[in-house]
Amino acid sequence: MTTSVALTIAGSDSSGGAGIQADLKTFAALGVYGTSAITALTAQNTKGVTGIHPVPPDFVTAQIDAVFSDLDVGAVKIGMVAQAGSIDAIALALSHWRPRHIVLDPVMVATSGDRLIAAEAVEALRTKLMPLASVITPNLPEAAALLDEPVARSESDVESQGRRLLGLGCRAVLIKGGHGHGAESTDYLVSATATIALAAPRLATRNTHGTGCSLSSAVAAGLAKGEDLETAVRNAKSWISAAIASADRFSVGHGHGPIHHFHKFY
């Protein structure tokens, strides 16, 4: 029996709702063995981030090398990378190990509104990690920030920004519509050949902590299991929608609570 393996390279969330913890929960919920390389420790809860402690870049490299030298990694998800030095280390390590799939979630701001990446690291993200990515998964504000443009307001604007992001070197872009408006939350998968709109009802809940982390991890899980990109994205969208719809089963914290990763089981 072959076990599908995915690696998350991201920050730790002490409250368990986002970051490494959300990624590992997602992998487990979707039947994939999860491994991790931690880029930063954060002191945070459902109300906000009170501290960030970056992991030295050489130790980020050591974690990645330890995983790849022993396990057959089917897909990599990259989340929070707080500093340019970590981005350099990750880019070098992945260029060496050459994983089959890389999902880059360009995390810049937490659900609480706290900034999670140094300003000087954004350019390194654009130039060193994006060209390695099979797909990047920005939300509407992140897509705009990567292009130094205003947030897209229409479907044509979203598709146009997706095309320009492709020009930065990634092979596909999934622009998440959760920050948009209207009765539906529509994500757009943009590739060199097509744009696919994926709509789901917009759900009324404040328990959305970790949504972006978990969606990108769900895509990585699908790719690790051998799904093509469109299938992985569609399955991830369906799963994350159910996780958000089930979030109010939890009563965790006093701010933006977590989604329900294990909604299929309890």
Topology:
Layout: E1 5-13, H1 19-29, E2 33-45, E3 48-54, H2 57-68, E4 75-78, H3 84-97, E5 102-104, H4 119-129, E6 135-136, H5 140-147, H6 155-166, E7 172-175, E8 184-191, E9 195-201, H7 211-224, H8 229-245
Parallel strand pairs: 1-2, 1-4, 4-5, 5-6
Antiparallel strand pairs: 2-3, 7-8, 8-9
Helix pairs in contact: 1-7, 2-3, 3-4, 5-6, 7-8
Overview of the molecule:
With 266 residues, the chain is an alpha/beta fold. It is 37% helix and 21% strand. A six-stranded mixed beta sheet has the order 3-2-1-4-5-6. Helix 2 (57-68) runs parallel beside helix 3. It starts with a strand and ends in a 21-residue tail after the last helix.
Strand order of the largest sheet: 3-2-1-4-5-6
- Class from helix and strand fractions: alpha/beta
The end-to-end span amounts to 27 Å
Number of strands: 9
| Coarse shape | globular
Taking all Cα atoms into account, the compactness measure Rg is 17 Å
Number of helical regions:
8
Helicity, as a percent range: 25-40%
Percent strand: 15-25%
Largest sheet: 6 strands, mixed
